[in-house]
Structure formats: C-alpha cells, structure tokens
Carbon-monoxide dehydrogenase (Acceptor) (Pseudonocardia dioxanivorans), 1576 residues
Amino acid sequence: MTTTEPRTQKMIGASVLRREDRRLLTGAATYLDDLELPGCYEAAFVRSPHAAARIVSIDTSAAAAMPGVLGVWTGADLPEIAKGIPPKVVHPQLRDVPRVPLPADFVKFVGEPVAVVVATSRYVAEDALDLVEVEYDVLPAVSSTGAALAASAPLVHEGAENNIAIHVVQTAGDPAAAMDAAPHRLRERFTVARGGGHSMETRGVAARFDPTTEQLVVWDTTQSPHYVRNTLAYLYDMPEDGIRVVAPPDVGGGFGPKAQFYGEEAVIPWVARLLRNPVKWVEDRRENFVATMMERTQVHDVEIGFDDDGHILAIRNVFEHDQGAYCAGLQVPMITLSTLPGQYRIPNIHTELIACYTNMVPTSSVRGAGRPQAVVAMERMVDRAAEHLGMDPVEFRRRNLVQADEFPYRVGLTFRDGSPLTYDSGNFPLLLEKTLSAFRYEEQRSLQAAARAEGRLVGIGIAAYVEGCGLGPYEGSRYRLLNDGTVLVTLAAAPQGQGYETVYAQIAADALGMDMDLIRVTTGDTSRIPFGQGTFASRNTATAGPATLQAGQEMRGKLLQVAEAMLKTSAASLTIRGNRVEVTDDPTRSVSLRDIAGAANVGKHGITLAPGILPGLETTVYFAPERAAYASGTHAVAVEIDPETGAIDVLRYVIGHDCGNVMNPMLVDGQVLGGFAHGVGNAMYEEPFYDETGQPQSTSYLDYSLPSSMEVPPVELVHIHTPSPLNPLGAKGAGEGGTIPVPAAIANAVEDALRPFGARITSLPITPPKIVDALSTDDLDGTGPWHG
Amino acid sequence: MTTTEPRTQKMIGASVLRREDRRLLTGAATYLDDLELPGCYEAAFVRSPHAAARIVSIDTSAAAAMPGVLGVWTGADLPEIAKGIPPKVVHPQLRDVPRVPLPADFVKFVGEPVAVVVATSRYVAEDALDLVEVEYDVLPAVSSTGAALAASAPLVHEGAENNIAIHVVQTAGDPAAAMDAAPHRLRERFTVARGGGHSMETRGVAARFDPTTEQLVVWDTTQSPHYVRNTLAYLYDMPEDGIRVVAPPDVGGGFGPKAQFYGEEAVIPWVARLLRNPVKWVEDRRENFVATMMERTQVHDVEIGFDDDGHILAIRNVFEHDQGAYCAGLQVPMITLSTLPGQYRIPNIHTELIACYTNMVPTSSVRGAGRPQAVVAMERMVDRAAEHLGMDPVEFRRRNLVQADEFPYRVGLTFRDGSPLTYDSGNFPLLLEKTLSAFRYEEQRSLQAAARAEGRLVGIGIAAYVEGCGLGPYEGSRYRLLNDGTVLVTLAAAPQGQGYETVYAQIAADALGMDMDLIRVTTGDTSRIPFGQGTFASRNTATAGPATLQAGQEMRGKLLQVAEAMLKTSAASLTIRGNRVEVTDDPTRSVSLRDIAGAANVGKHGITLAPGILPGLETTVYFAPERAAYASGTHAVAVEIDPETGAIDVLRYVIGHDCGNVMNPMLVDGQVLGGFAHGVGNAMYEEPFYDETGQPQSTSYLDYSLPSSMEVPPVELVHIHTPSPLNPLGAKGAGEGGTIPVPAAIANAVEDALRPFGARITSLPITPPKIVDALSTDDLDGTGPWHG
C-alpha cells in the first residue's frame, strides 16, 4: 500500500498550527536558564586545556576561599559518583571505556571537566575557576582516526594494545568472491568531517534537593529525561523514585547530543544535594564547542563491483569511526554499518567497522546519526559506477532499487539488536520517479548541457537513503480526565521543537473522538509517567504515537462506560460532542465531561460510586514496536560552481520523502526542511578543526561555519506514504531524513559539475578551497575538456 | 464464617513492628512545620472575636505598612476565591450554607478568619494582626441547639425562617403503632457535649508556586490530599493537574477534623501564588480550639417500647444536632440517624434528625463520627429497660441481638447513599459472650454485690455497637518495580499514625509473594497517584487494602511474565526468593529483580525489548466496594465512684472487638486502645464551654480536660473475626471502634453504681460535679437504700 497523499482522519493528517508557537514567537518560552529557582547558586567547570594529560595535583583552596564561593569539588572529592557512565548501545566485542563525571587521574580531551565551582553567581564562579591550580603532566595525543590507528600511536587509554574500541565485520552473501568475479570494480576513499548539533540552547542542568519529599529534582535540557533519571539512579546508587527529572517544554533544540549523558549532569544534582540549595549550570557556547559531543568523523574505503548492465554485484566498505575520548555508545557506527546498502538490492555485502578512541570530545548521534556517512559511501560509488559505464546515474539506480513488491525486505545484514535487518515497507521506484518528476530531471539535464556549453560548471546529483527509525524499546502515553472535563495526555518523551503538544493532541483527538481544544499534552517529567525512553532516532511518532492512540481509545471506552451508566443507555448509542456526551438519537439526554470526571472521582455522595461507574479515569499504554520501521527518501540537486571562488550555488533542490503515514504534514515538512539545513551544513560548511595535539581550533562561530537562512537554499518537497505495518498509525520517523542524503547528493552534483575535469570530491564538507584545489587553473581558460 | 483468631498468611495477620516508629521515637519525624522551604514567608489570620457580627469595615493599611509584612488580604481583596466550600455529604433536603474562605460581610463564629497577614516571620505577622482594624456590628448569637431551635431565636443565617439545616425522619416497620401497643415504654433525654480531635500536630498549610512546572505545591496536614486538591481546583477554577497536594508522612494525628477543608487551606496557596514565594501557616493551639471543627453535640429524646420478656418492640429517637455556623457536610448526623438500632433486631424504628446552625465553629467528624451519640441513646435505654423489668442487662441484650445466621442483615433503614442499610457480617452473640468471659461478668457482679455490701459505689456497664466502615467511593494502589529491584507501592491515602508504611507493605508482600524488606510504601502525594479519597471513616484497610492486594497480584504476574521470558520457562515454574526469581526446580537458573526491572525498562540493548518482555512494570488498581462493611464491638466496664469527690475509678475494662480479618493485630490493638482513650475523654473529660453569646470559654488545656496516660485506665482486648464478604481481604475498619461505645458503657456503669439511689446520668461527659449533684448527701450516711 503506497499513497502519494497523507491519510486524513479528523485530526490525524491535518496541518494543525503549532500550539507551541505563540509562546516561542512572543518570547514567552521558558528555557532552562529562565527557570525561577529562588536563591539558586551557579556552577562553572574547570576544564582540561590538554587533550591528554595526567593530573598531578589540583589545589582548590584559593578558589574555595574566594568570597561568594560555596564549594569546589574535584573528582577525588566526589568518590561516590566516580563511576563510568554506561554507554547507550553496546556490543559484546566493544572495549568499553566509559567516562566518569569528573576524572581524578587523567584527562583525555580538551574541555573535559576536572573540577566544579559553585558560587552565588556565575560571575563569581568563573572568576574562581582561575584560582583553581591544576598541575598536569602533558601526554602525547591523537587527534584523528589515522593517527589513532597508526602503528606507533600513543594510547588514548592505557592498558590496551591499541586505540581500537571495536572492530566488527558484517557480510551478506559472499562479497569476496562476488567482488573478485565482478566485471567492473571501483574503489575510493571518502572522509567525512566532524559536525555538531549546535542547538540554539546549549546544555544546562539545574537541580534542587527537596527535603520535603526527599526528592532530587533535576531540570535538564535533555532529550531523554527518563534516561537521565535512570543514569543518575545508577550513578548515585539510588532508587529511581528519589530522582525527578524534568525537561522544560521549551528545550531549544536537541539534534542528538542532548540524548547523551554528560558528567556535568551527574555533578550538578549531586552538589545541589550536598549544599541543600538549588544549583544551576548552563553551558556557554565555548564549552559547547569543546565539551558537547559531536559526530560524523569517518573515513570510508569503499569498493563497488557491478556488471555491464549496471547491476551492483557487491559492495565492500571498511570504515574508520572516531569514537572520541570515551565510548558514549556504538549507536552511530553500528547504524553506519547497516545503512550502507540503502535502497539497493545488493546480493553481496561486506561492511566493516573500525572504531577507535582519539583525544577529542566523545562522539555520539547528531541528526542523521551515522547514516549520512554510509550514504556518501554508497551513493558516491553509484555515481562513479554509472560514470564508469557511461550510464545515466538515474538509470543505474533504477536497475538496482529494491522493488515495491519485495517488502518486508531482508537486506542480509543484522540489525544492531541482533535481529535480521528488515525493511518493513517502502516504494523506492515511485519515490525516485516522483522526485525526478518534481525536479524536472530531463529539463535539468538539458539546462546543464546548455550551461556547460556556456562554460558554466553545472552539475546534478541524486542520492537516496533508507532510515531505520521508530525504534523501541517502547514509549508510553498516559491519559487522565481532569475535573474540568479536559483530558491531560502525558508523554515520557521530551520534545526539542518537534511540536509534541500539537501533534499528540491531534492523535488524542482522533483516539478519543473529542475536540482537540479539550486535550492538553504534557511532556518530559519523570514524575508524571514512570517509564520512557526519550526523543532520538526519529522514533516517537511510531512509538509514543501508537501508545497515544491506544491509550486514547481505552480512555474513550472508559469515558463512555461512565456516561453509559449515568445516562442509563449503552455506550454504542453515545456521541461525544464538544464537552458533552450525548445520546446520539436524543441529544437532549447528555452529560458533561466535567460531570463524568466528578462521577468517577468523588462520586455522587462522596460515599459510593453509582452502579457501573469506574473509579479513576486514567489509562496508560506502553507501545513496544517489534522492530524498526524504515523511512526513505531521494534527493535531487543541481549546483553551479564558481570556478574562481569555489563557491557552490544550489540551483534547484528537490526532496522526495517517505515517512509512512503523516500526523501533521506541516510539522513533517518543518522537520524535513530543518534537517535539510543540517545536511547543508555537513555538505558545505561545518568542520571543527583540531591540531595534531588535539587542541580544538574552532571554538566559536567566527571559526566554525553554520549555514544560516541566507545560505540554506530553497527546496521543494514531495512525499509518498508507505505506511509501516509495525504500528497502528502506520507511522515512521521524520526527524532526520532531511539531513541524511544531502552531503552525498551535493557531492555527487559538485563532482558532476567538475566531471569535465575529472576532478574528484572525496572529502566533506565541500568547502570553496577544496573545490579550487580540485580544479587546475589551466582548465579554466576556456579550453577545458567540456569544450572539446 | 467467624473465627476468634486472626487469619495468618505469611505477612497479612502478622504483628510486624511499625516501620514508622524509629523516626517517630527518635524525634526524626518531619511534620509540616519542619519542612525546609527556603525563604518561606509565614502567615497569621485575623479572626473574629464575635460569634455573630456584620463586618462594617476592615482597615489593613497600618498592618500592610509594617516592616516585614508582605501583604494583607481580606475577603474583599480575594473575590477570586469567594466561593462556598462544598459540603462533603449532602442530602436533597439540606439547607446548605457552606462557608467561604474569608467572609467579606458577616462573621458567624468566634475564630472565623477575616483577613490574612503574610510576613517574613510569624512573629511579625502576629504583631501586624493587632494593626488590622476591623469594625464589627455585633449581632445576637445562638450557642446551643436549644437556643437555635427556640421560637424567637436569632437567625444564624439570614434569609431563612429558622436555624434548621435539615430535618429528616427515617422509619422501619410501624414505630408509632408498635410504640402505642408496647407493654412497656420508657423515655429519656440525653445530651452529649462537644468534643474535638485534639491532634498533637495542629492544622497547617504551606504552599509554593513552582514556576518551573507551573504547579502549585501545597503541603497540608490533611487526611485527604486528593480531596484538598479537588476542592482547591474547584475554588480556584483550575484543572486539578495544576495543583499538587502533599500530606507529609508524619502528620501528627487526624481524628476527623483534618478530613475537612478549611478556609485557611484555600487562602495560603492562593497568596503563595500571588507572592510567588512559599508561604506557611501553622495553627496554634488557641486557634485549634476556636477554629478547628469539633463534633458530638447532640440532644437525644429517645423512647423504647418492649414486652415483658425483654424483647424490644420499638425505638423512637428524635435528636438535635449542632451543625455549627456552616455546613461542612451531613456525615455525622446521617451516621447517627442510621446507627441507632446497633446490634439489635428491632422491628419498628423511628429515627429523626433535626440539624441546626449555631454560632459556633462548624462541626464534622471526630473519631466515632456520630456513632457514640447513637450508642448512648440506644444502650442507655437498653439498660433502663432491663432495670425496668428487673432483668440482668446482659440477658436483655442476649434476647435482642441479631443472630449470627441472619447476615447479610437488613436493618430496615436506609444508608446515607440511599441503599438499604445492610450489615455484611458479624457474630454479635459470640462477641458478647467472649467479652463477658474475658470480663468475668459473673465474678464482677459478685464483687459488685460485695462492694455494695461494704457501702461502696460499684457499677457495671455494657455497651455494644456496630460501625459502618470501609466506605467507598474507592481507593487506589499503584505499584512500580524500581531500578534497584525494590517495589514502590503508592497509596492515595494519607496516614496520621495508622502505620500504612507497615501494613500495606505486609499486604503487598503477600500479594507479590516477596519479602517485605523489598517493598516501600509511599502515601499522600497527589502527584504520585491521580485519584483517591483519603483517610476517614475507618475505610482504608477495606478499600486501599484490596486495591493493594489486587495491584500486587497483577504486578507479580507482570514480574513473572518478564522473568519467564528471560529464563525461557513458564511463570508457573518460578519462585521469588529474596531479590531473585528462580526456577523452582533448578534454583541455579535465576534472574534478579533488578535485572527484571532493567529488562522491562531500558531493554537489553536500549533498542528493542527482548521477546515477551513487557514495557513499564507498573500496575494501578482502584477498588470500589459495593457498600459499607460493618465492624462491631461490645465493651464491658466496672467502675467505682468516690461519693465525696465524684471521681470515677475504672476497675476493669474489657473491649470485645470485631473488625473482620486483621492485617496486623498489633496495629489494630493500637487503634482500638487509642480510640478507647478518645472515648474515655468523651465519657468523662472533654467539654468545650461557650457562653450564651457564643464566646468560647475553654481555649487551652488549662480549661479543657483531655485524658492523659495517667487517666486512661488499663484495658483488656478480645477479638473475634467475621470477614467481610465485600472485599477480598475480608477486612472491615478498626480506627474508630475503640471510641464508639465508651461513653455509653461508662454511663451505664456509673448509673449502675448509683442505681441504689435512683440517680440518673443523662449528660455527657460524666464529670465529678455532675455525679456529686446526682447524689443527695443524705444517701451517703451509711443508711442508703443498698443497705436496706
């Protein structure tokens, strides 16, 4: 079942305006730093200036004596929390080196916190930082995967033979034999630079120990309040019930790095409890550059084997992944490992990961999460193969796509939970054709030819991807009918701009058969719903969504059961209209939702519930999907290169997108466009530099380019909808697809623009100097090969 | 089914030591005034010095200008909360005059708050009270039911014809005809004085508006946090979700008055939100005397008709009930109305209530709640009838008791929810005989005869009762398996010393089949469980108890379902031992509860739950009993009167008690003994005086007698156990039975002691002056009738 239109029920599928926007657009949003916590102290962290060093001594006495300073703690002062932070995704072969909140002996990257100062204000705390004397014994560092994997590399973590965190191979078919036998084989090495999340709101933690409830309340700009609570409970060796984690509803962006747990998040609540006073720390932008996790750095050695007709026979990809100084989890490289084949039917696959430790800030997911790199490896080689055969790259793709009747499609690899990698649904050919049609592919090729004839460097790039999303383990939704006849829907998930207050109210409205204005959605507070996972991996619509649908249907049943008893009729004969439940055939017989709430709560006399009345109109459903759903997309782009400056002008960009059934098309479009901007950054702008000692060279936006609204080009969106059979909403994920193929598509287009010169683009981002380097100035005198 | 031994499972029925006691006995308990709320302001209330007055003007300017005063508000300043507080139990015929938090126009009793001062400390606030100038136009007041019901009585509330709040009659059979035809008829008028709850911790409220969650957090020494939340939501016109009410676990006694809602509870949170700063008010003892609700005052005109064989043919009781200045609910007089017939099979009943408003603090439930008065009316008349026939009063009772095979027994009256008044189970004859046996009734009669022969005033009294308890509408229990493998059980109910942390852990241990030390019970926080009723009417073991049993059984099922999947076996083959679930036949195969919690929460890889694993190990059950269960008891007492001082010496006191199945015999005994002390107070000590203008004359323990441990006599307890068929625990209520028959039993004994003189005891409490009055000194010269 594929449609090209979103499924529209009453509210599901409607482009409802975002409830969040009024407060956001009027400056009335509450971010972590806006929280009113009377008497709150503020913290600042002493951070390592070295990428690798032994801590010889730390003298905090002068800082501690400074007026306004409440306390200074090093790792040695806080042995209670000197535990490793468990990585999120692990593997039996992982050499796990988790970080501790404040290391006492060694620092492994520049920016690693070694002490915390708490003072009456951030100003005082920052001044006191300068008084903390740390003596370091500086050690040699490695600041690239290449350096880390070199034979005589310094060891990031002692006690090991090398810097490898994990080395795993997955195969499907017989890739070695197939490659040997392939009529055509091409190889290339691609490097993808680091890139960050760069949320507008940086990380931040505030905490208050509430002696009245003996509860530690932690406000955290996290994507996963329950994960933070679980991790704190583990680190503090406390029952999780003693910790309440709240993600403010207006967290200003997440993008992955806020789905991780950082040392600061363990230190701040601990000292707040020690001091029995609220303590807050908000990361500044410089800290964000050095201490917030990044992603992307990978080096791919990829080889493709294919026949004369353009059928891919084998793919082999060996890639290095930069894990950073510690292991926050293997989610990113494991995703890269399995994302390689993408939309293509490839009988023989070799995909091999070598993850290594380096002396840089640890890496973890950033929107796209390991997929953009895999798509670069695959889609760049598809273009190379087409070029090799003199075939249109679109035609090459058509010959290799998994077909619409092949789902569920087993790729032949293994998913990272150990199950067979299986695509649930999709329609890649339709997606390609719809994208090309909107892109006006043939017309673009004509324009390209005309431009070339004028000596202009115009190129066209295509890139396709699949995205495993809607992951488990589960997500929950809890409904309650309130005294005023409104329904409160509580999600464990914490949004960072996705519009949960709107879209889950839409789902709830359809589930309840009620008007949306009677429904309120609240999120991100572990005290409101006990279990949850969080917002990452484009997972919530496909997990919290079905939970919200099912819990709402249960709640409707309960509501009508009470109304049935109150109206002395059968539930089947009732209709909810506005804030009343009425007998469908006789609307003069009705009862208000407010009265239903009262009847089921305090009862009529406050003594017994009337016969048939249920106590406690609350429902909770946790939905655990069997496995990941697969969204997909195909991007098409035309670029023109300025040969003198190396500037890339995006002439036309079309995104074809399939995230299954859509809850709110406007919000999905917003996600895709936001993701696209992120992809543009990875493709052309973002690149944090580290020198060979591991010293970061770009720690402000003066040294680090992000695309702004001026740089992000216009884009056209087209959608198809292949519902996932894995959940009753048929939903997949929409949060990352916009990002994933952009570097590959733009690189393909740039290389296509430079094809007349045979210039190769193998390093991302594609910055003007790289293009200028790739072009020999001799070729620019009007006698270049495309004139020939 | 009746047993004389408690049912013993593993933990249910065991006398487990109270978990609460260590902190209570070591002074480590946290009461409301101990809560740490940094920067908290304190409030004090301006209270009316008049029992009835029109407020002419209030000038708060001088108080407001005082340094340290944050604000002063009158009723006129807070029109938003100028709503009537809804009475708890109502009736269609009730002329409802609910109170408003701060009245703006009239005051109706001495102590009624008219303004609130908030200052940096209670000292400042109290000083500022003196600067609030209130001009009153004093009006005539009524301070007794007699005065209120007099023909030309001043009206407590204008706009009515009289001071009657409700006048209702219930009958069974044909009482008028039966009474006319009865061979013997006796009449008497009994008066019962007011009496209070006198909890060691007075009332108190603290509130903090939490701008971070937009939630108003209210700490309240209440028996019913959910009722407080519901009432605040109604008064503030807010969704209940915006208000979190927490009853600290160590509320120092409730006894009924803290199950009500008071104006102060509406004012404090409101001004805390206005000021955006915590505000606290703790009632002082003088305020407790004038502003906390009391109970008891009733005047009973009772007539009994019986035949020569001692069979009761008819009872007719018309009683006046003092509602106080406003109607907090009709629970007390409605209970009196239906409690009259007690343990006796009476074919013809006339029970008639005239509740009236007076200019005294409103009344509501105090431990016993309307039953002690009904038992006085009934049991005193039983003794009079026996005396009239020259029959042993025990023998008279035996002839009239409802028999063990007559349950469920329909009394012929109506319960206050409109259903037929039905006793679920009991064994009154066994209860009587067991009590008499322990009391050694015949021996006591011999001793009495011997004492009389010596000229000593010794008397024996018996009194029996039934107590409707275990009332709905419902109560809830929520379980959660925590990360550390322990189970958290959350109750809506808030204890005030009943030992919930212990007894519900016992129930949970049996329900889960787990060790009690792995179970923690938390109570009294509306944020932890959304619906609940509270602790009153001896209801929780029979409502929260079954909810805890059933939710625990569900949780055990879920736990074992997860363990089954983890151990690849069937749940039926598993045993929980300590903190592990093991295969019964092969204990080497086991999994820890901690691992089960982890598997069901974050999963093995943090990606998908393993097959068969349930997400979210939480269960919630609300148990709604069909109707009230009936506990019962029989008390026997021997007293000796000092004729010179009028002092009563309790020679022997035996309590026979049946509250169905017992969860923790030691705790039940504690409840019964505590209740007994309360009954002793009502029988012999407690009496608040008001002058004819409604001015209270006893506002400290210098003027008001409470029995201390020196005054409460030793008592012996015997139990029988007739399980209630209305809930799976077979539980009834145990919190009030100790109190109910004590005034009647002691009055019967005292009158028996004075019987040789024909002296009559018709007024409670029986204080020494009343006894001295009742005895003519001429009778004390050794020539009295018992020598004759």
